[in-house]
Amino acid sequence: MNALLSEAQRDALQELMNISMGQAANALARLIETRITLSIPRIVAATPSEFAALLSQHEENWFTRQSFMGKVNGEALTQLTKEGCEALAVAMDYDVPLSDASRKELVLELANILAGACLTGFSEQLDLATKLSMPTLYVPTVNSGEQVVEYFRWTSTLLLEVEFSVDASLFDSKVIICLEQRSVQTLLASINELLE
């Protein structure tokens, strides 16, 4: 699928992602009053086995998923490291040590802030109205590529991925926007309009 992206399209998409992810980082930074560092956005086509590799890291991470629908459809996955969560909880005025209920609330709140700001910024820039559902916490149990395909309802997808790191903390998060095959074509058409 990467071959479908010209260099100009990839550059435009990466810049749009930079802006969107920057908005998400600013939203979290204001909340915890700490600087957030962003990675350079990655734009890749994911195979089922690559999805399986991503989801296999559930021992060190929490995962949330949020579907979105509108002009483009897909899911926003958020991967949040377990390490450093207590420090972030303190910055967000949670009582520590965290109870199971508080930990779940924290993870879902973080996912909603990051994925919500990312998707909103992204869709607004491209005039692709979308509605994001509330996040749900889950523990991946998939072990094979075939199960991953069934689990995510698609065989390949365009992944728009960026990593957020909280300065002075071990906490790290990754937001991955997964677009269904048909939505990739809608996305490319919108990008082409911007490039004209």
From TrEMBL:
<dbReference type="Pfam" id="PF04509">
    <property type="entry name" value="CheC"/>
</dbReference>
<dbReference type="InterPro" id="IPR051469">
    <property type="entry name" value="FliN/MopA/SpaO"/>
</dbReference>
<keyword id="KW-0145">Chemotaxis</keyword>
<feature type="domain" description="CheC-like protein">
    <location>
        <begin position="9"/>
        <end position="44"/>
    </location>
</feature>
<dbReference type="InterPro" id="IPR007597">
    <property type="entry name" value="CheC"/>
</dbReference>
<dbReference type="InterPro" id="IPR028976">
    <property type="entry name" value="CheC-like_sf"/>
</dbReference>
<protein>
    <submittedName>
        <fullName>Chemotaxis protein CheC</fullName>
    </submittedName>
</protein>
